[in-house]
Specification:
Elements: E1 10-14, H1 16-23, E2 28-30, E3 34-37, E4 46-50, E5 56-62, E6 68-75, H2 83-97, E7 107-112, E8 121-126, E9 129-134, H3 143-150, E10 155-160, H4 162-172, E11 179-181, E12 189-193, E13 196-200, H5 215-222, E14 229-233, H6 239-246, E15 251-256, H7 259-271, H8 276-280, E16 282-287, H9 290-295, E17 302-307, H10 319-335, E18 337-347, H11 354-367, E19 372-378, E20 395-401
Parallel strand pairs: 1-4, 9-10, 14-15, 14-17, 15-16, 17-18
Antiparallel strand pairs: 1-3, 2-6, 4-5, 5-6, 7-8, 8-9, 10-11, 12-13, 18-20, 19-20
Helix pairs in contact: 5-6, 10-11
């Protein structure tokens, strides 16, 4: 399954610092770390990395247009990257998910990018549909081979990150949301998560159509919601709210700036009305900008607040600004909590570390002057492993305010 070429193999040598990093298991090589290259490389071909003693170091996917020049596939002893190698790599990722979920959950992550040895590629499954999300053009020349390997007899939909959509269309005729295998799709895919039904907008929705990584936190919130009024900030399609309703919440307010997302939240509540607790819960979709709404200092208080904003730091330069924004959001959310209220605050910003985020939450709680206790912190679920620093993005903290 390699790209056939009459040219000699692409050979790269790295800086001493980059050699050490690759040997340590890091999956990325940046352009400034390449000190020698035997020829001009083509996006998608395999680049073989050698150390200063001309010994094999690693092999990876070359990306001629990206500052992230090589995404490591294998390091250590040389191995042939052939059809069997790819098949075993896929089988290994699938095997790691075996037994994690029962029939009550039909949505999960099958391949988690670099963390499963598939750099820049994510594969999610929603019942009979799989969604392949690509973050680099390096996969595009070998997409047909990957499609055959990954669809597993299910419908397979291609999603492309925004930064590669133009090139994918121009060079390969590929569009975001295109069906690579299986039947046409005319409606959102319905899948199960812990017995609840949700729709996934796999063609045009955010990421692959749903935020599967918050499954465990949604389940924990269900166990905290009984008898509580719930405010779900940055609610998107209302997943946290549905779990809270099944857990016995008296009311759920889903607040988001996207009317489209709120409509999806209404439909998700409707999909679960056969559950008496969901049917009895008062659901209020509220269309508003979270920041503006919070700064307006609303009078109502809530017993359980979920604060799960989108990434506030998409690059390292935005980290400090993101931390300030988190602190403001945390402070404003704490002010809306009733006595014995619980704040569940999450961050998906990889450039903000777990310790930085947890410290911000603890400081905001301390500065509120309210007596409080920390219930728990959580990180990545089992189907979203994080094996290197930049892959560690998800963190969540639970705080109860006793007065």
């Amino acid at each position: 399954m390699s790209i056939v070429s009459a040219q000699p193999s692409l050979r790269l040598r790295l800086t001493a610092a980059a050699e050490t990093i690759v040997r340590g298991g890091h999956p990325w090589v940046f352009a400034q770390s390449v000190r020698e290259q035997n020829r001009e490389g083509r996006t998608g071909e395999l680049a073989i990395l050698f150390d200063r003693q001309d010994r094999f170091l690693a092999v990876g996917l070359f990306d001629a247009e990206s500052p992230l020049r090589v995404r490591i596939l294998h390091a250590g002893k040389p191995q042939p990257i052939d059809a069997e190698w790819w098949r075993q790599r896929a089988d290994r990722a699938f095997a790691l998910r075996e037994g994690l979920f029962d029939a009550r959950t039909t949505g999960c992550r099958c391949i988690n990018g670099e963390n499963d040895g598939w750099p820049g590629l994510v594969l999610d499954q929603y019942d009979t549909t799989r969604v392949l999300k690509l973050y680099t053009t390096a996969w595009l020349p070998r997409l047909s081979e990957m499609c055959d390997l990954l669809h597993g007899g299910r419908r397979l939909i291609l999603r492309l990150s925004r930064n590669i959509q133009k090139q994918a269309l121009h060079d390969f005729g590929l569009k975001d949301g295109q069906i690579l295998h299986g039947d046409l799709l005319t409606a959102p895919v319905i899948f199960l998560e812990n017995g609840l039904r949700f729709e996934a907008e796999v063609v045009h929705g955010q990421k692959t159509g749903f935020f599967l990584d918050q499954r465990e936190n949604r389940s924990l919130i269900e166990g905290l919601a009984r008898g509580r009024s719930v405010l779900n900030l940055f609610s998107y399609s209302g997943g946290f709210g549905v779990y809270a309703a099944r857990g016995g919440a008296t009311s759920v307010c889903n607040l988001d700036i996207s009317e489209h997302a709120l409509s999806s939240a209404v439909r998700n509540f409707g999909l679960n009305h056969s559950c008496p607790a969901v049917a009895q819960c008062r659901h209020e979709p509220l269309h508003a900008d979270v920041f503006a709404w919070l700064w307006g200092k609303p009078a109502q208080r809530y017993d359980l607040i979920i604060l799960d904003p989108p990434s506030l730091a998409r690059r390292e330069a935005e980290r400090e600004e993101a931390l300030r924004a988190y602190a403001k959001l945390l402070t404003a959310s704490i002010a809306l909590l009733s006595k014995n209220g619980i704040l569940v605050a999450a961050s998906c910003s990889a450039h903000v570390t777990a310790e930085e985020f947890f410290t911000a939450a603890r400081q905001s709680a301390q500065q509120s002057g309210r007596q409080h206790e920390e219930l728990r912190t959580t990180r990545h679920p089992s189907d979203h492993p994080a094996t290197f620093k930049e892959g560690e993005y998800l963190k969540c903290i639970y705080l109860r305010f006793l007065e």
